[in-house]
Each structure stands twice: as C-alpha cells, then as structure tokens.
Amino acid sequence: MKKWSLKVKLTVLYTFFMTLLTCVSLAILFSLSNQEILTSVQSDLKEQVNGGIDEIEIKEGRLDVDSDFMDLDQGIYLSLYSEEGEFLYGRIPYGYENQEELKDGIIQTIEGSYGKWYVYDVRYRLDGYGTLYIRGVTSVTEAENSIRITLRTALVILPLLVIFTGILGYRFTRRTLMPVRKITETVRRIQKDKDLSRRVGLGKGSDEIYQLSDTFDQMLEQLEEAFNREKQFTSDVSHELRTPVTVILAQCDAMLSSKEISKEEFTQVKMIRKKAEDMAQMIAHLLLLSRADQGRQQLTKEMLNLSELTEIVAQEQQLLAEERKIRVYMEIEPEIYALADESFYIRMLVNLISNGIYYNREGGYVKVILRQTETEVQGIIEDNGTGISEEALPHIWERFYREDTSRSDSSHSGLGLSMVKWIVDAHGGTIRAESRVGEGSRFFFILPKEKK
Ligand code: ADP
C-alpha cells in the first residue's frame, strides 16, 4: 500500500466499499424477494383453488363445471377429484406425476423428476352430489428459475459495475487531487529553477484543497518578498560599505608612503590595510552574488584561449604557493578555445587554486588539469591538502559556509565557492567536488565551448 499513490489508494478503497455495499444489498434483496415470490405463489394457489369452488355446481342432478375452471390463471392448474381420489375433471401440468394423497387445506411441496411443485387441496361438500376435492398445482421451479435468471444477470452486471465504479472513482479522485499535484509540481519547479516567483495559481475555491493551494500561494508570496528584501539589503549594505573601505585603503596607502611614519606604525597600518583589502574583496564577492541573485549580473563572453589564461593564473598562484613550500603542477592541453567571460573565468580559477593552496600543508601540491572534448572544456583542480569531511562536502557551495570556523583568516569568509558555482552555472557548465579528509580534494568543472 505504501508504494501506491493516494489516487490509487482512494480509488481502490472507494471501489471496494461500493462493491461490498452492492453485493450485500443484492444478497439481502434476493433472499427477501425469493421468500416474497414463493409466499405470493402459495397465496395465489390458495386463492385460485378456493375460487375454483364457485365454478362447480349441480345441474339436473349432474356435476356441471364452468369452463373458467380450465383457465390457466397465473400458471395454476385446477383439477377435481371424488372423495376416493378418482380424477373427475380439470388440468394437470405436464411432468407432474399426481400421485400425492389428497390432504385438505395443506400446501404440499413435491419434488418430482420434472421439477418442484406446490400442491394444494380443498375438500368441498357439494349439496346433492357429495364430497369433492379440488386440487391446485403450480410449478415452484418456474418461479425459482425467474429468480435465478435475475441473479445470473446481476452476476454478469456486477463485474461491469465494479469496473465502471473503479474508472469513475479514479477520474473523480484524479480531479479532486489535481490541486495537490499542482502544488507538488510547483514546489519541484521552485527547487529545480530556484525561482520563487512561481505560483500554484488555482484561484480561490471553497474546497479544502483549493484553500490549501491558495494559502500555499500566499506563503510563497511572503517568502519571495522576504527573499527580495534580504537580497536588496545585502546589495545596499555592500554598496554602502564600498566607499568607506576604499577611503580606508587610500588613507592607509597615504600613511604607508609618508616618511614620518615610525617602523611600528608602519607595521600596524600595513595590518589595517591587509584587513581592509580582505573586506574590499568580501564586499566585491557579496556585490557580485547579490547582483547575480537579482539577475543583474551580466557576462561578457568572448572567444578565449583558455589554455593560455589558465597557465597564467596557475603561474601567478605558484608564486604565492612557494611561500608555503607548495608546488603548483600543470597539465594543460594547448589551444583550448571557448566562449567565456575572461574576468569571471580568472576569478573562478583563482578561487579554486588558492583554496587548494590555502587548505594544504607544507610540501603539498596543487595540480591544474585542463583538457577538451569536441563540445566541452574539462578542468580539474586537485590538491593533497586537508580534504573536506563527508558531512561538509554538500555544503561547501553555500554562502558563508566554512568547515573550520576556528580559522581566523578574514580573507576566507566562505563566499568563494558560491561565487565559483555561480560563474560555472552562468556559463552553462557544471561543477562538483570529491574529497577525503587528510588525503586531499578534487574539483571538476565542465564548461561548454560555444554556449552564448
Ligand atoms: P573560503 O573563503 O572560506 O575558502 P570557500 O567558499 O572557498 O570559502 O570554501 C568553503 C569551504 O570549503 C572552506 O571553508 C573549506 O572548509 C572548504 N574548502 C574549499 N576548498 C577546499 C580545499 N581545496 N581543500 C579543503 N577544503 C576546502
């Protein structure tokens, strides 16, 4: 049952109960009507036999029976007997053996080789003639046959009724659950496209599911507003912070170039400058991401020689890596061209390679691999550094996510990989990471060659 959809479950339940109800009603109806028919056959028989008395009279000392006596009314055969049981007059149905004793006022049920019969006799004293018996015979088998035929027809109709009820129930349930399906589809689309502007859009209705869908739409509306406010806030804050940070940097530069500054002051101002630089970079990342969120960040794509560009970036990073005795290797296929935004491609590589250096140990390495197929560019940035734990791996693309928050380096705020992910997505590519704690990490990116 667990694997079945709600639609199927409701249909099965509905069909089962409808069938059960129909079967029980039919069974009750048949048993009642069976009894009713047999009782009415018996009372008809009695009535006809008693009515037959009126057809007999004595005329000129002889027995005179009206021709109505021979009528086959309601399938009842009437016959006349002397007190000794001798047949005098009347009709006997074909197949009835007529061997029963005459018993006054009792309905006998006789099972013969041609079926079942009800036999009813009435003793009657006819003035001027003597005692007579009137016998009525009617077939029970015929009455039962008509019930049996109706039962058989019902048994043929019942499966058809079950199928019809099932189809009807399924269509009805499908229609009723349609809003639930729409809600699920909307949520899936929102998850897939990260587009909160989607709505179920069924409008208002009095039924509970329509109310649910309407409430859901209202909730989405509020969520979208909240997200937009948050995006706007991030964008405003980053804008507002840009100017003071630029001023701090400029002031630091001015102080550092002044001849009057002492050695101690120089070190302190240099420290301030480094932190202000980290802050400026963080603000730049934030601005980029908030512009990307609002769909305002455009790419300027051109045909680039990615082999050359990658080599230049890797060489630059090598200089920084040397301070920490880390080597940067390159395995770059020549002449790889693709449509890409130069500054964003550089930012992406810088982030991936600098992470490989930063989360590494003395004597470690970072390997930069770039190759191509007919349609795409494949890159791998591999290191043998600290690695990322299995629990942290799915979260590294989230904003401000840092596995080890005890590191106090302000240049690593946890925004780098979310920016890398946006850059790859914006180029129509994909990126994923593999890692093992203590062994190192591998970042695989794929960029299409021609996507505009
Ligand atoms: P950060 O600015 O802190 O480096 P990122 O978004 O670049 O932020 O990375 C998020 C987190 O992923 C980092 O805090 C770090 O824990 C982990 N990480 C990223 N790259 C690597 C790597 N090459 N080796 C180990 N951990 C990494």
What would you note in describing this structure?
By secondary structure, the protein is an alpha+beta fold. It has three domains: 141 residues, Beta-Lactamase, CATH 3.30.450.140; 72 residues, Helix Hairpins (Orthogonal Bundle); 148 residues, Histidine kinase-like ATPase, C-terminal domain (Heat Shock Protein 90), CATH 3.30.565.10. It contains seven helices and 14 strands. Strands 4-3-7-6-5 form a five-stranded antiparallel beta sheet. Bound molecules: adenosine-5'-diphosphate.
Give the overall silhouette: rod-shaped
Assign the CATH topology of the largest domain: Heat Shock Protein 90
CATH hierarchy class name of the largest domain: Alpha Beta
Q: In angstroms, what separates the terminal alpha carbons?
A: 49 Å
- What structural class is derived from the secondary structure elements? alpha+beta
CATH superfamily of the largest domain: Histidine kinase-like ATPase, C-terminal domain
